[in-house]
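dumping this here before i forget
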Amino acid sequence: DLYRKVFVFRKDPSDAYVVLRTKLEQPLQNFTVCLRSYTDLTRPYSLFSYATKAQDNEILLFKPKPSEYRLYVGGKAVAFRVPESRGDWEHVCASWESATGIAEFWLNGKPWPRKGLQRGYTVGVEAAIMLGQEQDAFGGGFDVYNSFSGELADVYLWDVGLSPDKMRAAYQSLRLPPAVLTWKSLSYEVKGDVVVKPRLRE
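structure:
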């Protein structure tokens, strides 16, 4: 249970990462991924990387520069332009549904204009899921200059698109529906220089 705790990625650049384990029964037609990050990086970095043997950017949440987040599904991406961080925690949620190809992006509890991405696509199931690195091959192929350095917390993955109410609840750390990956009962393995510490502030 990582309640009120964070992963601290200490080095920059870094070869460290955290592997997340989950049992997905079937391919994803919908998903929502949420997490909280705290960093002063201005170079590109990867937050959440979900790769299959067929596609290394099956799901990827990436920040190429301080004013943009990018969501990849099945190797294709949409960009969301955001205000530059004022040196505080940032909470992001990204969701996608196959039927309409609609990608939603929420930053600190507010929705951005929706975009179209990979309509009719299905996200594969035999996945390597990790925090802090971008996979260019299944379970590896890292570029240290895309590595994350800073603090990560409140990581969730759902196999559904969350409603606006639940998106706001995720931001406020309120009660959430059962998830495929849940911060409060996370099955994970630290690889390299990552430390679990109490959160310094709410």
